[in-house]
Amino acid sequence: ELQERLPTAQFGKGSIRAQEVVLAKPHTYMNTSGEAVASLSAHFSIPSSDLVVVHDDIDLVLGRLKLKTKGGDAGHNGVRSVIEHLGTGHFTRIRIGIGRPAIKEEVVPYVLSPFAPEELPMLEGAIRTAMERVEQLLTSPS
Predict the structure, then answer these.
(1) Tell me, what DSSP letter sits at residue 115?
(2) In the chain, what are the domains?
(3) I want to staple 66 with a disulfide (CB 3.0 to 4.6 A). Which of 59, 95, 106, 125 is the partner?
(4) Whole-prediction pTM value?
């Protein structure tokens, strides 16, 4: 459970296979989520190379996952904010596909709207897979 708070995020601490982990949910807008990530990174002395940022991606079909270990923002404003606030793109991202709206101009309402009931099972499966990927990242040799 995410029972603890910093000004920019809610978080919880635990362990996965004897590795201490912090799970956090920013309380910032997506476009400024780098504030929360940088604050948590500093608070817990977590180097950027040990961070895993899980985020949506309209360029992937609904439910598809893609792991990226470093790089640019790929047009994602939240990832751009994280890179700006950390001063580096050297962190792991797990991108969860949400699909793209049929009409390009409808991107903002699309990403802000709730998922349709028939999309939820696919999304829940993607979230479970993302959790498994995090566990694999923690247990695989560097």
Answers:
(1) P
(2) 4-139 (3.40.50.1470)
(3) 95
(4) 0.89
